[in-house]
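Deliverable D4.2, example record:
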Amino acid sequence: MSELLIGFIVAAILLIAEYLLCTKLESPLWGGIIPALILVGTICLFASGRIPLETRYLFPFVILNTLFFGDWGTGRDKYRKIKQAEMERMKAKDIVAHPKCISSTHSMPFAKLPCYSSFALTVELYPISGKKFKLIFKPSHCMK
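Output generated by the structure prediction step:
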């Protein structure tokens, strides 16, 4: 009974590690490490003859490999959804930089500023007209 409990604990730890590797890292290869190791281990166990190649012994390994490779696929789908939601939030906040800002070679001191950065200056002309003006400056390489 304790062997079964230890097996479930190890499987749970591996599934958690698999989930984190699939959803948090950019490269899909990181998420494939654990399923590939499990598949290689399964093949080695059956090829060496330690476990007889019979249906009752083969079935749990097929389930295990299917579970981990399926988790890898779902983790990559979730990673894509997370990145898509992040891009939509950035577009909603209008934080996406203008293409000219990326390849800009202007000699102006603020030429390397992203296009979404601007600064405002409030000028008060009380002695003349009593009005306030707000001037907004943007880097010239971001103007259309």
